[in-house]
Design goal:
12 helices, 4-stranded mixed sheet, binds 5-S-methyl-1-O-phosphono-5-thio-D-ribulose, Four Helix Bundle (Hemerythrin (Met), subunit A), Rossmann fold
């Protein structure tokens, strides 16, 4: 693994005592690091996708909560009220990626356990949770990349959607991590990158990452995918996930469902890659997953310029649900779930996703 190319797009800067975020709105043309010091700054960064991707949303949420409460001075009772208010503010920003909510629950559970400690220790523990989730996600990405590469043929043309790399998950990423690892092993002939309308995470971010890794790729418009499959130009589709529920139904960036149907029609394996922190075992099927809708301007405008007629309106789901019957395999840090269903997922995920967050007190 080419270690010097792996970096942290989100990290806590101890010297400046703030959160640093590589601003993904400006990539690929400018590499600008944001210094996040206030709760409203992290809310804005999450809302506008300066930081994004399910695993890193979980990381940003933990650091965001810490930023929201770290300067609080007052009684224990009002501190816990402030903490709950801060959690509530972060919880409403992006509803689909479950990682954000997993983080909020981890913080709530931990603070409940250590409630009798000093407020400084509780605050410190929340910061520690941020560091720990970042580290866990990085470790998961390496395991996912190896597990996924293990099930690929030794010469593949891959199609992927959105951005699932370092920028979205830390480490080497999930779906893109598999592509990195497969390339390192000499398996990858070519990668087709869906541009991923409307915010272009594919053509801006995935292309930027593939270029850093010298992996051959071509960008395609989202609507080209089925045509390429019909022309036998794609051997496997690999995508990430924002939430995988008990029966394997998977929420991911809008357009994933169309890819899965096309792949099934053309008998092409459709692989979902995600850490266990992206599973939501509280929901039986995809029907109940809350889908995020974005501002209409993201579709009606392009590059800051109005494209559609003045009075046009847009319908703007940011995610869709792929039924598990279209998914050939889900790759996690623990291994591979072939033909996922409720029983296989339960067996794979049993034991929970994380152990404990209570640091030495
Ligand atoms: O809206 P985004 O850019 O946060 O959407 C990201 C995706 O849909 C990714 O595929 C998903 O979060 C997995 S990232 C490893």
């Amino acid at each position: 693994m080419d270690d010097e190319k792996i970096f942290r797009p989100v990290y806590w800067d101890f010297e400046q005592d703030c959160l640093k975020i590589l601003d993904q709105r400006k990539l690929p043309h400018k590499e600008i690091w944001l210094e996040i010091k206030t709760l409203s700054q992290i809310e804005h960064a999450i809302d506008t996708l300066a930081v994004r991707g399910a695993p890193l949303l979980g990381v940003a949420a933990a650091y965001g909560i810490y930023i929201g409460i770290r300067n609080f001075r007052g009684s224990s009772k009002s501190f816990y009220k402030k903490l709950e208010d801060t959690i509530a503010r972060i919880a409403v920003i992006r509803p689909t990626a479950v990682n954000l909510f997993v983080t909020l629950r981890r913080i709530q559970e931990t603070t409940r356990i250590i409630k009798s400690s000093t407020l400084d220790k509780v605050k410190n523990n929340i910061l520690e949770i941020g560091h720990r989730i970042l580290h866990e996600e990085e470790e998961c990405s390496f395991a996912i990349s190896r597990n996924g590469a293990d099930i690929l043929d030794t010469s593949v043309r891959v199609l992927t959607h959105c951005n699932t790399g370092t920028l979205a998950a830390g480490g080497v990423g999930t779906a893109l991590g598999i592509i990195y690892e497969a390339h390192r092993r000499g398996y990858v002939e070519e990668v087709f990158v869906d541009e991923t309308r409307p915010l272009l995470q594919g053509s801006r971010l995935t292309a930027w990452e593939l270029e850093r890794w010298n992996i051959p790729y071509k960008i395609i418009t989202d609507s080209s995918a089925a045509f390429l499959m019909a022309k036998e130009m794609v051997d496997v589709v690999i995508v990430g996930a924002d939430r995988i529920v008990r029966n394997g139904d998977t929420a991911n960036k809008i357009g994933t469902y169309s890819l899965a149907i096309s792949a099934s029609k053309h008998r092409i394996p459709f692989i979902v890659a995600a850490p266990s922190s992206t599973f939501d075992l509280s929901l039986l099927d995809g029907e109940k997953i809350k889908i995020e809708y974005r501002a209409q301007d993201e579709v009606l405008n392009f590059g800051g310029k109005r494209i559609a007629p003045k009075n046009a309106r847009a319908y703007t789901p940011a995610f869709d649900i792929t039924p598990s019957k279209y998914i050939s395999a889900i790759v996690t840090e623990r291994g591979v779930i072939e033909k996922p269903d409720i029983h296989r997922i339960a067996a794979h995920i049993s034991g929970g996703a994380y152990a404990t967050d209570v640091a030495e007190l």
